Amino acid sequence: MDILRPEIICIDGYRFRRNPKQDQTTEEYEEDEMGDNTMSTLAADVYCDEVCDAAASQIQETDNGFRLTLDVPSDYWKHIIGKKGETKKRLENETRTQIKIPGRGREGEIVINGRDRQGLLSAKTRIDLLVESARQRQPFTHFISIPVNSEPIQDRFGEFRDDIVRFCGEDRGVDGSIFQNPNKLHLTIGTMPLLSKSELDKAVFELEQCKEEILSKHGRLSCQLRGLEYMNDDPGEVDVLYAKIHLHDGSDRLQYLADHLVERFCARGLMNREYDRVKLHVTIMNTLMRKDPAGAGVVTSGGNKQPIRGRESFDARNILKLYGDYDFGPYDINTIHLSQRYSTGPDGYYACEAKIDI
Description:
The chain is built from nine helices and 16 strands. It has 358 residues and is of the alpha+beta class. A hairpin with a 2-residue loop joins strand 3 and strand 4.
């Protein structure tokens, strides 16, 4: 980690530096015991003298002290409990609180009880850090997207796909199954795991709050989808081939818009920043879409689809030579969506949780 650019975790408007682990040794988790061993490395530096007091007004006074409830998606409870309950016990001992978590298979809120307000706030801060750390490792469920799927674009994409299969179909790894669904051509701005209704509502609210600012600063975004590029550095071993997008006025307004959206969602703790700038691209071929010969393709585990085997790359050298400057046509960007992963809406695009019109 660059010590001048440490990893930052944003929680409730507060910014925390995440210190690097001193000991990289890990042990296997026992799922039946809902285990996780991140508490000692992540939250060891956070105690009662460093708390996030945004929840102070939510603390309720009781006959035996104080009480604070936390709305935490059940997917994260195992990270608070830890292996054999060790993380939860350590939290309770060090903050002098009692933490009640609903039993396995039940829904509800986490309740923190204690005799000292600062203890409750310290426990909340450490739980928030544990959840945020786990969140960064969670597969994404939703993403901010910009559809690029007008009928003319889809027609040109269909012609491109047919030409590639006809003239480059003998090249290693090239077949019709790895092409994007033309109804789902899009720009991905950023991804996020939203595991509860409250998290989803928060993301919807943030997107809707962006509307006036986007309209006032950017206006109409007219672009051209032209030219091919690949993600890695070897055109003979490609996993993702994408089309480049260019604004007709030559400006970087689209890049600014994308970066601004990511910055806003990261600041609200909904999204994790992976790169300094958003990579603007429209995926047209992706080996993750390759059909499995047995017809299985993907399997579902815990609501998340995962490939059942490793990727098989394809040789894109002829494609780039023959179609490297392919023009898919013009497109006016007019909507930004909060899209659901692994879904299809009534119009053939991804199911839309919310959208703003430009």
